[in-house]
Amino acid sequence: MKNTRLLLATCLCCLCCVSAWSQREQFDRPLETKNNVSQPSQSAIRTANTTLEVRPTQPEGYPAKSLPEAYTGFRIEIIVSDTLLPDTSEVFFRHGNIIMEIMLDNHYHYTIGDFQEEVAVRNFMQQFLTPRYEEPRIVRYQSGKRL
């Protein structure tokens, strides 16, 4: 009988400790993102009574990179999304050299490749990307600007 009381008292103490610990840890708060990188806003926000527009930005440490300012050549756009792709997206594991651009329509445009000739980019796209992606398209850049 004494052993049963002791066991029950121990279990009750453990339960109280765990309860107090879980309340202190604030498990009801959302988990932080990988490497404490905050997610960008999903769309443009227009504040009341102003014309100031807040544009989404690329978070630090995101696997996709920004387009170099002086880039000239051809790239293949494989995905256009209205939300930021997660770090764990299959796209980042399947391809290297992924560039993400946030366009004026607040969509995220993901491109791959680095081609100097249109014939080479067309051949690559038809051979490797058309079977995998719904609508890949060739994008030409001149001095960092889409044409």
Can you put this structure into words, describing what you see?
The chain has 147 residues and is of the alpha+beta class. It has three helices and seven strands, in the order αβββαββαββ. It has helices at residues 2-25, 90-94, 118-129, and strands at 45-46, 53-54, 73-81, 99-102, 108-115, 137-142, 145-146. The strands form two sheets. It has a five-stranded antiparallel sheet with strand order 4-5-3-6-7. The chain has a two-stranded antiparallel sheet with strand order 1-2.
Q: Give helix and strand order, one letter per element, not per position.
A: HEEEHEEHEE
What is the mean pLDDT? 79
Our count of helices gives: 3
**Spatial ordering of strands, largest sheet:** 4-5-3-6-7
* Unreliable segments of 5+ consecutive residues: 33-38
Tell me the span between the first and last alpha carbons. 85 Å
Largest β sheet strand count, sense and barrel closure: 5 strands, antiparallel
- Helicity range of the residues? 25-40%
What is the 3D form? elongated
Radius of gyration: 25 Å
Indicate the proportion of strand residues: 15-25%
Provide the structure class.
alpha+beta
Q: How many E-type strands?
A: 7
